[in-house]
Structure prediction request, 360 residues.
Amino acid sequence: MAERPRGGVGGDRRQGDRPALCDRRARGRAVSEHAGDGPRHVWVNGRLLPADGAHVSAFDRGFQLGDGVFETLRARGGRVTELPEHLARLHRSAAGLDIELPVDTDERIEAGIGELLAADGLSAADSDASIRITVTRGEFRGRGLLPPSGTSSPTVAIQAWPVLPPPPGHLVKGLHLVASAVRRDPESPLATLKTTSRADFVHARLEARRAGADDALFLTLDGHLSEATSANIFLVRGDDLVTPDLACAILAGTTRGWILGWAPGAGLRPVEGWLSTRDLAEADEAFLCSSVAGVLPVTAFEGRPIGSGRPGPVTLRARAAREAFIRGGGPRTGEELRSVGQTGTGDPGRTDGTAGASRR
Prediction:
């Protein structure tokens, strides 16, 4: 890890220089895949509707321009994980696009989530759900990029899916990442907003699939590590738990923040900085984290193993602690975090969760 230099970074390669991958077979289902045939109901603007009957206008700016924001989060046994944090970020993203939300938005969303989980049978004690909250600027029948002046009527939709365990190989062998040809601009005012404009992320995930990898890793314009398509990344180097700085065009993931709080009690020193691909190549361990996935090990980058090439002990401890938290019996802050960090409480063999189509 180094201070932010300008220009090239040691160990950085453009996509055209990628070596032949050690394993180009299909890597199992995508890390964003959900269970079943999809939601039975959708909550739209205060109404619970059958999924087949839930529609938005063809003039909605979210449909036409990707003019909207969203959050993806997880609920175990009907208990929504870190809802206040996700709603706060939803408001920050909306403010970044000048989308004005009604004052009762949070209360309506919270009630809508409860109604939706109950309707789709996802509020039982043993249930595990992924929830997506989408807010667009709403309908506008004119043309052009500029939204109408004056008060808008945002469209708010909530969907929920049962969460599948990740493919067994993801926990036993770990994930294989490749670098995306898409670069992230740390100076962009949109870099830290969770918008519905996801073309870059779709392109990167398709790159990974074509390469026989599990996910793609974005680099900044000057070659520093940024984030994966739906997750933040952490590296383990000795007792240091290192992750890209918020200035590296990343989303401030809720799970990322939780892990930074968990680390000291686990005997690790949390570090945020500017990281190169060489830092990743020389790491002892690496893992991705997101709200739905929790923690998933990364064991290869661009066809080369990271560390031992197997999921490492810090990764497994972090996953166990995070899953315990999601179940409602794990660490939150202070003494609870320190206790779990010191004892490794939790079941590292548990296979809850899968990386969501959006993180974190």
